[in-house]
Design goal:
Elements lengths: L4 E5 L8 H15 L2 E9 H10 L10 H7 L1 H12 L4 E8 L3 H11 L4 E6 L4 H7 L2 H8 L4 E5 L2
Parallel strand pairs: 1-2, 1-4, 2-3, 4-5
Helix pairs in contact: 1-4, 5-7
Length: 151
């Protein structure tokens, strides 16, 4: 399998497992000289707060991708990947609905050959009660998915 683009979903929780995510991406994308598309899906109900926190004006017409470029978890993982010699690009998206569905759509848009998602171990009841972004991506992505679990 030839890899050109690896989409990595990044959330604020991924700062805890950034080393594992970076290692997985570097091991997969590095030898293939693939580009890692670092991606964050902003939930609509949090987007305005994040804009303010990042210093954007209330009425500014910035795109989610511009916001993602300044988003701390993305910046941290990008710096680590680039120090490993891995090429990166950044994508941001705004979602009113399922983050998992949005990630699957973004993976198709960037023509990802592989998706990397992080997550934590959950009980079956926890998955049923709260849903799981990683589970949605694992079950519906058009390409293989690598799951990186935090301890």
């Amino acid at each position: 399998m030839t890899l050109e683009t690896v989409l990595m979903a990044v959330s604020k929780e991924d700062t805890e497992r950034s080393e594992k995510l970076v290692r997985a991406a570097a091991d997969i994308a590095g030898p293939a000289e693939a580009t890692v598309a670092l991606t964050h899906v902003f939930k609509e109900n949090e987007y305005d707060t994040i804009l303010t926190d990042l210093g954007f004006e209330e009425d500014s017409e910035v795109t989610p991708t511009v916001v993602a470029q300044r988003y701390a978890p993305i910046k941290e993982i990008r710096a680590q990947l680039e120090s490993e010699g891995v090429s990166c690009e950044i994508h941001g998206s705004l979602s009113e609905g399922s983050v998992g569905n949005q990630l699957v759509e973004l993976a198709a848009e960037v023509e990802a050959d592989l998706v990397i998602v992080g997550g934590r171990k959950r009980s079956p009841a926890g998955k049923a009660a709260f849903g799981s972004t990683a589970q949605k991506v694992l079950l519906t992505a058009h390409c293989p998915v690598t799951f990186v679990r935090s301890d």
